């Protein structure tokens, strides 16, 4: 089978599952991962016969995609802020809005000599990127799930990042020290929204990282505000990624919880997705 034949086969198999842009992106990812071919190389080598072993791997990937498994989990890879992160079903697939959160911190803050804590780190994409892109004196990340913590540690080792990881439940425990900056992308999906999520999300990504176990979508935010003086230095800064429908609620929580200079920031799609606040 040639590359051209495989592309045609892929498009036929998934025409009802993916839109045109998704079809192109998935094909590009598969060719890049299994053949190390760019989109241009695929076009130039369209009539090339795919080696048997490579074709087997591609076909196995198609079987998994038919089950709605995210392609990131199939190839165990996600590109975040220009770097390749290992991902599996112990962690959420990093999203573009989280890249925007990281970029905001790097553009907004002086990182030299500062300490930062990431709460609910998952794959470790936030603290690892901040460590590699910034000049922080100390970068620490916590995660309640042991398997997710192992994944984050693996990524730090693969990318040569200097991040301290701890298994820690922010709902019942308090960080061991005070930090200049605290950042978190906690579970915030509303429980009633879970059933409406795409199959590739709800059937594969860890629910514990998507939504709080209670019906309160603001559970983790309220907890962080309650313990803020025990983890953030005076005049220290808190960054959150938030649900697009809960911007006003998050602002009120922060203002009522002793924070000032509260900023709500939209993502590139115009959705309220990030908050910055200074502890009074």
Describe the structure.
The chain is α/β, with parallel strands linked by helices. The protein folds into 2 domains: 64 residues; 199 residues, Vaccinia Virus protein VP39 (Rossmann fold), CATH 3.40.50.150. The chain contains 12 helices and 9 strands. Strands 5-4-3-6-7-9-8 form a 7-stranded mixed sheet, with helices on both faces. A two-stranded antiparallel ribbon has the order 1-2. It is elongated and about 65 Å long. It starts with a helix and ends with a strand. The mean pLDDT is 93.
- The beta-strand count equals 9
Q: What is the CATH C level class of the largest domain, in words? A: Alpha Beta
Second rung of CATH, namely the architecture of the largest domain:
3-Layer(aba) Sandwich
* Beta-strand share of residues: 15-25%
Query: What is the domain total for the residues?
Result: 2
Order of H and E elements: HHHHHEEHEHEHEEHHHEHEE
Strands of the widest sheet, in order across it, are: 5-4-3-6-7-9-8
Poorly predicted regions: none
CA radius of gyration: 21 Å
How many H/I helical runs? 12
Shape: elongated
Report the mean per-residue pLDDT as an integer: 93
For the termini, the CA-CA separation is: 65 Å
Return the CATH topology of the largest domain: Rossmann fold
Largest sheet: 7 strands, mixed
